[in-house]
Every structure is written in C-alpha cells, then in structure tokens.
Amino acid sequence: MKKFAVLLSGAGVFDGSELHEAVLTLLSLTQAGASYQCFAPNIEQMHVVNHLTGEVAVGEHRNVLVESARIARGDIKATDELDIQAFDGLVIPGGFGAAKNLCNFAVVGSECEVAPSVKAFISEFVEANKPVGFICISPVMIPKLYGEKPKGTIGHDSDTAHAFNLMGGEHVEANVEQIVVDEARKLVSTPAYMLAENIAQAHIGIDKLVKKVIELA
User: What start and end residues bound the annotated signal peptide (predicted)?
Assistant: First the structure.
C-alpha cells in the first residue's frame, strides 16, 4: 500500500485549508487504496477570520497545527516530524491558508516566500523525486520550490496566472475538471475551488489529481 503525506494549513477556507478540498483529498486517497498521514507547520496563522461574517477577528490568535488537527481528527504531525522514506508522495489542498500560512502570496503576490518549515518539508519530496499534487491556490508555491519553468495551474484567473509566471513558473490554463501534469518533475495541479461552483465539481479534479499522483509514485 502506497502512503502519502497531506499538508494542511489550518481549518477553514478564509484562513486555513479549504475543508471540502481537504476531505475530498483524504477520501480519494482512501478510495484509491492508499493510506495517508496529515501534516501541518507548527506556526501561528496569519490571522483568524470569522467565517460567518467574513471579518478578521481582532486580537485572536490560532496555531496552524492545532487548527489542522480538527480536519485530521487529531491524527496529525508537525512538518518537522517527516520521515521522507515512509512516504511515496504529497498532496496539498488549497484554501487561503495555503496563501497566508504556508506562504505569504495573499499579502505580497509574486514577491512571496514559502514559510521556512513548509519549504523544508516540501523540498524533501522534491529532492527525493517524489510526486506532489497542488490543489486550488496552493500551486502558487510551485515556482518557489522547483527549478526553471515548472508547469502548474490555478485555473484561468489572469492576475494569479501572471504572478505565477513572474515567479518563474509556466502557467497552463485549465478548467475545473482538468489537471495539469509536469511529468518530468512528477508535479500535478488542479483548480478545484478556484473555479468549482460546488463540491461535486471540485471532487472531479481532485480525484483525477490524486489518481495521477499515485500513478507517478
């Protein structure tokens, strides 16, 4: 049985992992006969958003690892606990947490940097030539993690695609049901809720991505 790491960024679309994308990822991995272990960086969230009102909760602080544990039902490890030999690949769901906590793309766009603990974690998979799947907005990290002109998609938002290219990537437009594969780098991405209008649409691309990551492993 192949085993995959799943990197989470909190719990909630506006300040953490997109919950549907995270759960669909875990479901697709399990249905495909693979096992998984959830991980998250042990760092503070950029901020906390009230998901009922959409407003930032002033003065409230939350930890990315602690919040991600909600999705993993408590079975989660910090990114610095990774034993790369135990895993065949990695999948990273989206949500604004990927652009706020895993990196700072939401704040500085193409000038973004990946959080040090996150970069070290993902780089272990890259250096070991193991497949990585990026979902929704998480592909904005691709140019910061791979070599020259890695291929990836966030769908067809022109501003985000332009930023992806400015950072050194090669953006490929895709619809919600498609995946983009950089075969040489064992790199897969799909737009999910960058384009999805409902959970069923998001599921199609995520399921394809998971199956391709497993195949590349």
Answer: none
Residue 56 and residue 49 in contact, taking contact as beta carbons nearer than 8 Å = yes
pLDDT, one tens digit per residue, over 63-78 is: 999 999 999 999 999 9
* Residue 196: both structure tokens together: 């999805």
- Which residue reads 């799947």 in tokens? 133
Annotation says 38 is catalytic: no
* Nearest alpha carbon to residue 37 among 64, 63, 7: 7
- C-alpha 70/C-alpha 53 separation (Å) is 21
Q: Which residue range forms the structural domain that includes residue 57?
A: 3-216
The total of other beta-carbon atoms located within 10 Å of residue 183's CB is 10
Phi, psi for residue 37 in degrees, rounded to 5: -135, 125
Backbone angles phi, psi at 180, to 5 degrees: -115, 130
Whole-model pTM above 0.85? yes
Which two tokens mark 134?
């990026």
CA distance 205 to 117: 28
Question: Residue 126's CB: how many other CB atoms inside 10 A?
Answer: 18
Tokens of 1: 């049985």
Name the active-site residue from 38, 103, 112, 136.
Answer: 136
Query: CATH no. for residue 208?
Result: 3.40.50.880
